[in-house]
Amino acid sequence: MLDIGFWELILIAILALVVLGPERLPGAIRSVVSTFRSIKQTANNLKAEFNHELRVNELHEQLKQAEQKGMMNLTESEKKAVSELEQAAHDVNQIKNNLNSDNKSNQ
């Protein structure tokens, strides 16, 4: 990521100690660590969302191909995509039914 060696880190630490002083340095370090952590988490979330969208697009394309064939003589990847989408639809319906039954029992 960053190509910083040991001596560069020592120099940065000494400069931070001189500029911020020993009282404010621990707070500044916590702030920097917190900022880097949130940036990393945001990047990981964006990456996961991007991968999910790519997968959804791929499944959508395979479903289009399967529909064009009239759901007959499907390739293995098309069969897998259809079954994966059927499973996802089943899971969504199950969650919906659970939510509806929870709402009815709360009323």
Automatic annotation (TrEMBL):
**Which Gene3D superfamilies does the record match to this protein?**
1.20.5.3310
Q: How does it sit in the membrane?
A: Single-pass membrane protein
Query: Does rRNA-binding appear among the keywords?
Result: no
Keywords of this entry: Cell membrane, Coiled coil, Membrane, Protein transport, Translocation, Transmembrane, Transmembrane helix, Transport
Q: Where does this protein have coiled-coil stretches?
A: 49-102
Pfam (any one): TatA_B_E
InterPro entries, from UniProt?
Answer: TatA/B/E, TatB
Q: Where in the cell is it found?
A: Cell membrane; Membrane
NCBIfam families recorded for this chain?
A: tatB (TIGR01410)
Similarity annotation: Belongs to the TatB family.
Q: What does this protein do?
A: Part of the twin-arginine translocation (Tat) system that transports large folded proteins containing a characteristic twin-arginine motif in their signal peptide across membranes. Together with TatC, TatB is part of a receptor directly interacting with Tat signal peptides. TatB may form an oligomeric binding site that transiently accommodates folded Tat precursor proteins before their translocation.
* Record HAMAP family: TatB (MF_00237)
Subunit structure, interactors included = The Tat system comprises two distinct complexes: a TatABC complex, containing multiple copies of TatA, TatB and TatC subunits, and a separate TatA complex, containing only TatA subunits. Substrates initially bind to the TatABC complex, which probably triggers association of the separate TatA complex to form the active translocon.
What's the protein here called?
Answer: Sec-independent protein translocase protein TatB
Record organism:
Catenovulum sediminis
* Gene giving rise to this polypeptide: tatB
